[in-house]
Specification:
This protein is α/β, with parallel strands linked by helices. 38% of the residues lie in helices and 24% in strands. The protein has three domains: 172 residues, Molybdenum Cofactor Biosythetic Enzyme, Chain A (3-Layer(aba) Sandwich), CATH 3.40.980; 77 residues, Alpha-Beta Plaits (2-Layer Sandwich); 158 residues, CinA-like (Maf protein, Alpha-Beta Complex).
């Protein structure tokens, strides 16, 4: 698609999207695909299951864009209106593709589809000259249709797995052939922990004004990302453009960059512990199992993760972790002394190379002047019984889930840094 073209738009259809019942992951995924194809993507819209509103927005888009990609509204129910609304937008009639009805019945042979009055049959009707996009993972096909010269519509179901398969099998090659100008975008994302977005941005201010590649910061809870994107004729050329910027950033932020692209703190730690042939266990209080869950969400975690003890009450801290009543009374459950004992004892009890213990006040209640909401103690016990103690005080305006999530990030990043220093 030439720089002077009108560009691409995404239209998400479904009242459930407007109500917030479903997160619109489809638009995000399609946006990434368009970027990789080097296409100008300027706008996204969402409209509910209302035929008149769908018609209005499609007619508006047809006047300002070359390509429209829709998701949702292709099913058999009365509120699936996409194909009908598109046809009405351009005053055309829908015609049945009889072979599609046969294919649908073949996909669901044990259902009542022998009845030709089935509501699923509406999925077989398309404009006369539309090209069908086969749906190998569902019953609702999509279409490629040019209702007026210079404007093409591609339709997809709202189910992400179906949409992605149809895109990869049919739509990608069609769009690349017809709309791409042979240039594509390639991105490399660096991931940071233990540093804020503003601190990163301040140190790379000169890079933020680059044209090719571009550098853009993004922040999630407890994590900062820098996406480096290059425009080139192929991925290798784009990688060569990105390489010097990537190397500069990795040198300047060597302590803070924990991974790239699809890496996560848990996946990076698991990979390193596997490399070392070492195991890990946890003793959790304020995080209630979230630390363990973060690790077990990664495939392969069983190679390093032995298990954990979630000792939320003082009674279980005594019973399962052998924390003396005297220590609990003297220092309190949220203290360096108790947390350190939790780490030492769980490591010994469960038999691992590493142990992380965490105890804190996640709020919104339970804080005091001496121990406010957001106070968290972390202890890490390693080989040779070396102990690292960490005290964090998160902003009390953080909610309970945020404090727990940030606490998990600090646990994992702290161990990452310890392993990093031990590898030198």
């Amino acid at each position: 698609m030439s720089p002077n073209s009108k560009g691409v738009e995404i239209l998400s259809i479904g009242t459930e999207l407007l109500l917030g019942n479903i997160i619109n992951t489809n638009a995000q995924w399609i946006s990434e695909q368009l970027s990789q194809l080097g296409l100008n993507h300027f706008r996204q819209s969402t409209v509910g299951d209302n035929c008149d509103r769908i018609i209005k927005v499609i007619q508006e888009i047809s006047k300002r864009s070359n390509l429209l990609i829709t998701t949702g509204g292709l099913g058999p129910t009365p509120d699936d209106l996409t194909t009908e609304a598109i046809a009405k937008s351009f005053n055309v009639t829908l015609f049945e593709r009889t072979h599609l009805w046969f294919e649908i019945k073949q996909k669901l042979p044990n259902s009542k589809l022998k009845d030709d009055s089935s509501s699923l049959r509406k999925q077989c009707f398309f404009p006369k000259n539309a090209q069908i996009i086969n749906n190998p993972r569902g019953t609702a096909p999509g279409m490629i249709w040019e209702p007026i010269k210079g404007f093409t519509i591609l339709t997809f179901p709202g189910v992400p797995s179906e949409m992605k398969t149809m895109w990869e099998e049919t739509a990608y090659d069609f769009i690349k052939t017809k709309f791409s100008d042979s240039y594509s975008f390639f991105s490399n994302t660096l991931k940071f922990a233990g540093i804020g977005e503003s601190s990163v941005a301040e140190k790379i201010n000169d890079l933020l004004n680059l044209k090719n590649p571009t550098v853009a910061p993004y922040a999630n809870l407890g994590e900062v990302k820098l996406r480096i994107t290059a425009r080139a004729k192929n991925n290798q050329e784009a990688k060569n453009i990105i390489k010097p910027i990537r190397e500069k950033l990795k040198k300047e932020f060597s302590q803070f960059i924990f991974g790239e692209d699809n890496d996560t703190l848990p996946s990076v730690l698991i990979k390193e512990l596997i490399r070392r042939n070492q195991t890990i266990v946890f003793a959790e209080s304020c995080t209630g199992g979230l630390l363990s869950s973060s690790l077990t969400s990664v495939s392969g975690s069983s190679k390093v993760f032995q298990g954990s003890i979630v000792s939320y009450s003082n009674q279980l801290k005594s019973l399962l972790l052998n924390i003396s009543e005297e220590k609990l009374i003297k220092y309190g459950a949220v203290s360096k002394e108790v947390c350190e004992a939790m780490a030492i004892n769980v490591k010994e009890k469960l038999g691992a190379d590493w142990a992380i213990a965490i105890s804190g006040i996640a709020g919104p209640k339970g804080g005091s002047r001496d121990k406010p909401v957001g106070l968290v103690y972390i202890s890490i016990s390693g080989p040779n019984n070396h102990i690292t103690n960490i005290k964090k005080l998160f902003n009390s305006t953080r909610n309970r889930i945020e404090i727990q999530t940030l606490s998990v990030n600090v646990c994992l990043n702290s161990l990452r840094l310890i392993l990093l220093s031990n590898s030198k």
